[in-house]
Amino acid sequence: MNNQIIILEVNEIAGPIMDRFMAEGKLPALERMKRESGIFSTTTDSTGALNPWVQWVSFNHGISATQHCAKFLGDDSTVEGTPFWDIGGKGRTSVVQFPMNGRYSKHVEVFVSDLWSESPIVFPEKLKRFYEFSRSAVHSQPTDSKWKTLSQGLSILPFLTSCSLGPKFFALALRQVLLERVRPVVWNRVCLFEKMSWRVFSAMCSSHDVQLGVYFSNTIAYLQHRYWHFLQPELFDNSLTKRRSAPPAILTGYLELDGEISELERRMPDATIVLVSALGQVPHLNAKVAYVPKSIDEVIRVLKIPVPLRLNKLMAEQFRFEFESQEALLECQAELDECHVGTAMLFQTTSSGTSMLVKCGIHTTVELGKVIDNGRGVEVPFFELFTLLSVKTGQHDETGILWIREPERQHYQSPTPIPLVDAGRTLKNCLKSDPRSNLELVNNLRLALESNERNSAALG
Prior knowledge:
Blueprint: E1 5-10, H1 15-23, H2 28-35, E2 38-43, H3 52-61, H4 65-68, H5 84-88, E3 94-97, E4 110-112, E5 122-123, H6 128-139, H7 146-155, H8 157-162, H9 167-179, H10 186-207, E6 212-217, H11 219-231, H12 249-267, E7 272-276, E8 280-293, H13 296-302, E9 310-313, E10 318-322, H14 326-338, E11 340-341, E12 344-345, E13 347-352, E14 355-360, E15 371-373, E16 379-381, H15 382-385, E17 386-397, E18 400-405, E19 412-413, E20 418-419, H16 420-430, H17 441-459
Parallel strand pairs: 1-6, 1-7, 2-19, 2-20, 3-4, 3-6
Antiparallel strand pairs: 2-18, 4-5, 7-18, 8-17, 9-10, 10-14, 11-12, 11-15, 13-14, 15-16
């Protein structure tokens, strides 16, 4: 009996969009997987914030947000509870790569923290340069030098070659470097990063004869956030699309996923494959503009904002300020709240304890010549300190997908959605079983749903 299980944590898959591409015949491996899998939709509590760094911990730990206490990206070392790979890694050779806010476990042979971790753990040692390059690539901004990232990339060429990345990939990478001398082609860069990350994960699984593999990808989520208006232009103001032809960005992201599923079919035909998205995405009809500081240190200096004890960059447009006390945080908060562009507040903040997330709070187009006023006598042109990052036309949705293809390849379509926490808890419980036994994950999810229904009937 085959006891391999590979869990693909693909952030924010949009089910209707994937269905559309499958109906067009563009995703044959995913279409095959859907026919041969237990198909569930997941839901999460919409009363709280729909943030993937919260929902992924809920799934991975099988407990609610109020129990695991994750609030921000970078909370991986402080979240409560244990992830399923801590349970499943006992008696199973395990590889875990990039889990969002994922806690390290001593029971796994290969562990690579997510690219936003403030205290990253990377094991074994040979993966550290790959991690540093990946982190630098993900955190780069339009104003950053591309040469640092390029030099880091050259330093890991021998390692990437050992992971079976061949001449075709390196030719694509070289072409991308040359293209970016003219203009940035961000979506293509993101898809190249996906190819590289998957190849490293695949190589680690092969070299360690993996029994439990966990791979997180943010590629599709990123592309949908930024390119949905090209996929369904009829939903948006035509000013977003009239200036250039539609790039095949979102389709390319799904093609990468289709290729990964196809490879697993060839290499691990009898493995249990889990595809889970935690959240989904839907079109953001009021397109959201994102601006970022050219230099956060310069923003703090010019606008005379109190300097935090520690400052870390999280997402491309978001920073985490740490303070020695809540009083210091409140003092900084008051200064940030004074900063305006016209009547709009310059900063958007979220606080918890002595931590504060900070990003530009202006999400509509800023006209040239607009000035930042810090409320204390300092005025400076907006575009002297900030630059346009992107226009977001996809937004989070509480409905995610959960597909499980077991060795028997039996199709089952769940008539009702399952809470994401219950799905994670069921996976965790199944992994407590003897590593030599069949997980029977689909059947156990069906039983969990039946139990939920009985409990609801008893209460109602």
